[in-house]
Amino acid sequence: MNIGVLGAGTMGHGIAQVNASAGHNVTLRDIDPDIVEQGIQAIEENLEGAVERNKATEEEIGATLDRIQGATDLDAAVSDADLIIEAVPEDMGLKKSIFRDIEAAAPAEAVIGTNTSSLSVTELAGELEHAGRVVGLHFFNPTHILPLVEVIVAEQTSAETEAFAHDYVDELGKTATTIQDFPGFASSRLSAMFSREAVVMVQQGVASVEDIDRTFRIGFNMPMGPIELIDHTGVDVNVGVLEYLTEELGERFRPPQLLRRKYRAGKLGQKTGEGFYVWEDGEIVGISGDGR
Questions:
Q1: Domains with residue ranges and CATH for the chain
Q2: Taking a C-beta distance cutoff of 8 angstroms, is the pair 111, 164 a contact?
Q3: 187 in a labelled binding site
Q4: Is 117 known to sit in a ligand binding site?
């Protein structure tokens, strides 16, 4: 199957990797050639890590990389695609523009998926003349490790498209859940509540960042605490999701002031080297001076 992935950032290159590993031909497209190159380099690093952990062979890495090509031209990514997955930033206006461009350039029978973590798939599909082929495909980060994909069913999603999405997720070796199109879906809505409350507790002085995360990891047997997860996904992403959920679902999702202060200071987490934690080479090396 030919797959076009639009957006070569954290989620986009991860989605490209799992598709190529499953045997699909992938074109990873971004408007910035440097981001495309960085995305492919990140895929190579992930695959080399799999070799070091005896999860893959050098031959398998070579075959996976051979199935990935980079592009900055939209037509190159979608003109012969069977499936297009949009993974651009969480901005409704940007996504609508991309969707219109996809419909103009892609085959009429191609399925169009969006990796949005919270925005309305129904609203996105409303941009298209043939909206029945739109479906949400919400992958989780890190995509090459986490097994869940939420299949988001929009108001317009056809039964054929929904069935295609489930078969596709199965072929990737991942697990699909079916979620109706509602603000925050299931995962983002639940995660937002945990993360928001964790920041509120830090703000109130209930416990330190480390102890809240430690309580969550050990007490609930989770791989990552809610505040570490904020840093991992991005403070800016979390503020955006909470603001959207506040608008759609009410005040209980309003971003805490401590989270907004991090955002305004440009302390966005792992990607900037500091959020609630201090990061070096993808690892936590300390607590931010104002992380409490």
A1: 2-180 (3.40.50.720), 188-283 (1.10.1040.10)
A2: yes
A3: no
A4: yes
The answer to whether the annotation marks 95 as part of a ligand binding site is yes
Instruction: Calculate the alpha carbon distances from 169 to 79, 178, 181, 292 in Å.
Output: 22, 11, 18, 41
205 is in an annotated binding site: no
Q: How far apart are CA 85 and CA 4, in angstroms?
A: 6
Identify the bridge partners of residue 26 per DSSP, sorted by sequence position.
Answer: 3, 68
Is 10 annotated to bind a ligand? Reply is: yes
C-alpha distances in angstroms, 259 versus 31, 96, 203, 275?
Answer: 30, 28, 9, 9
**pTM for this prediction:** 0.87
β-sheet bridge partners, residue 137:
151
Tell whether 39 is in a known binding site: no
**Is 271 one of the annotated binding-site residues?**
yes
8 is in an annotated binding site: yes
Q: Is 64 annotated as a binding residue?
A: no
DSSP state of 220: T
Kindly report, residue by residue over 204-232, the tens digit of the pLDDT: 999 999 999 999 999 999 889 999 999 99
